[in-house]
Amino acid sequence: MVELPYLKSSGTAGFHDRHVTKAAEIVEAWDKVGKITDAGIIGAPLSKPSISLSGASQAPAAIRQMFSALSTYAIEDEKDLASKRMIDLGDIEMHLTDIPGSHRRIYETMASLLHAHPEMFPIVLGGDHSISFPSIRAFAEQKGKVGIIQFDAHHDLRNREDGGTGNGTPFRALIEENVIEGDQLVQIGIRNFSNSRPYHEFGEQHGVTIFTMKDVRDQGAARIVREAIQQLKGKVDIIYISLDMDVLDQAFAPGCPAIGPGGMTSDALLECIPVIAQEPMVKGMDIVEIDPTVDFRNMTSKLAAYVILTFFLNRI
Question: How far apart are CA 289 and CA 194, in angstroms?
């Protein structure tokens, strides 16, 4: 038989350095048999409920692809994730036209997974922000009273009469459906010219803690996160992180459907991740609102992958 040492399987013939482990190599497909006791990645590729035109349904695949662009070695910490594993459970199949049906699929899937794998740390990849409502609803039912730290430019407290449960309504829905009380929600990064007074007032009336971008600039993002955790500790059993990437300034996250100026820098966001990861009460998270079709050189998807690796590095 003729030896063909340079002929590789499709898609694997790129440059390979024997001394570099790519982050994609520590992400393993779930065998659907073993118990998941660490990080589990779940895709929720839904963007039909988005107020803005959005290709966020393509984000789970784009974020996963960016793991191949990052290594496992963290030079600042002198730690290597090469021997660790994250389990990829795949994507939740969405209904083609039925938005409430798609939300129900997310809820049922998350509830079943969290019941079967109580030690799993779910990392849900949206999708638009509407996926947070069914995800957190399942999370709360399986885990207990949940506190939420929401990174976002927007309140996402829109009324549901005008357009149903969409990407601008997940936290309104959680409050109205009695999944959480308003004082279980902390919002970080809310900024000018991205919201309306009635929704700000709704948040205040229901006890939501709101940190604007001015607060972030004045106090520092990591300090605010520490304060948020301490505030929630006396009220809840567990904490869930919801990261809407449009909390970032458009210069750092061009691949968001609702980009705008005046947001957080990527450095400020990344300073928050170790604080979150080292808190034992934090038991789940989602990353939402990335549209790979408008991204520039995958900047926003790569930052999301970087966030996941930074969290994983500081969690172990």
Answer: 15
